[in-house]
Amino acid sequence: MSFKRVALSALLLASVSACGGHSDQTQQGQQQAGPPPVGFISVQPQAVTLTTTLPGRTTPYETSEVRPQVNGLILERLFREGDQVRRGQALYRIDQQPYRAAVASARASLARARAAIASSAALQRRYGELVKINAISRQEYENSITSAQQAQADVAAQQAALQTAQIDLERTTVRAPISGRIGRAAATTGALVTSGQATPLTTIQRLDPIYVDVPQSSADLLRLRQQIASGDLSRGGGAARVRLRLEDGSIYPVEGTLQFADVTVDPATGTQTIRAIFDNPRGLLLPGMYVRAELVEGTEPDALLVPQRAIQRDEKGQPTVLVVGQGNKVEQRALTAPRTIGDNWLVTAGLKPGDRVIIEGGSMLRPGMPVTPQPWKPNAKPAQPGGQGQSPQGASAQAK
After folding, report:
1. Spatial separation of the C-alpha atoms in residues 218 and 13, rounded to whole Å
2. Which domain covers residue 163, as residue numbers?
3. Domain total for the chain?
4. Coil, helix or strand for 307?
5. Cβ atoms of 373 and 387 closer than 8 Å
6. With 36 labelled, which of 141, 245, 276, 336 sits at a CA distance of 20 to 30 A?
């Protein structure tokens, strides 16, 4: 019986010694591991181009609704729908017969007025001789002068009437007021049209170049102007550049330029309309298309960029970042990051040039913890804690 007790005591002592030895090895391994490694980047100021992407609609450079200026029946349509037409090209012919008759009547009236001038002028000369010898009264002579002047005025009036009749005759041929792409015909041969009617005969649109109208917040435009005025942004020489992304996601191959910003703010939406102009030689852009315009606001010469993967949010939703501070200890910084540029955040406050921002290995870190900083290599494999780079299975095998 005493022999069994002695054996059991020896077994318990061996077990305790083994557990104590394993615990000592673990503590020694943790001490040898040291502070965890982290990958960092050193933020440095750099020049970046700031852009804003906004929705917009294409608008024709010029639009003309073609309406008749005289009354009559359409005898002929002289264009094909969808064709490119030139300014002054004949589009419709209206029945000319009434207007030719009006021109002939105006010519006859002008001839009669001119004949009356000759008669009144001769009468004025004859009365001028008779009044000298008191053969007629002074009143009769003055009446002859008035009659001659009235005859001259009648000639001028008939000349204007003839010119009006000729203009109306010319307008029986409806011509294109601008060059551009002509649309659907709203009137056919045999239709009765009237001068200045509400419904246009057709519409012509000039599509090369073409406008893109983009609404932008008036607050954003005000901020942009203030940044340019203070020197924080540089616009460079020339007009601001604009790029287009089409409805299918492709990039329009031609860059446009900013024309102007509307001088009035829409009180309902708080936006101003920005108009850009684009060359459209192939007619790829059509009126009314939905596009996304990338407006180049300017260049910020000393911007600090931080990768998005390094930014975290606190309980208030404010952006924060972990940096390697003095003594290689972790520090947390609150940031002001108003916008993204690619896969980076533009930081305007909270960091200074040279700060070491932790990019990798910061998920389990807390402010004040010591770390082993290493320059971050985007294509390198993540470092293992302790720097041993071995698999969990290998570590278990060594522990055993």
Report:
1. 82
2. 96-171
3. 2
4. strand
5. no
6. 336
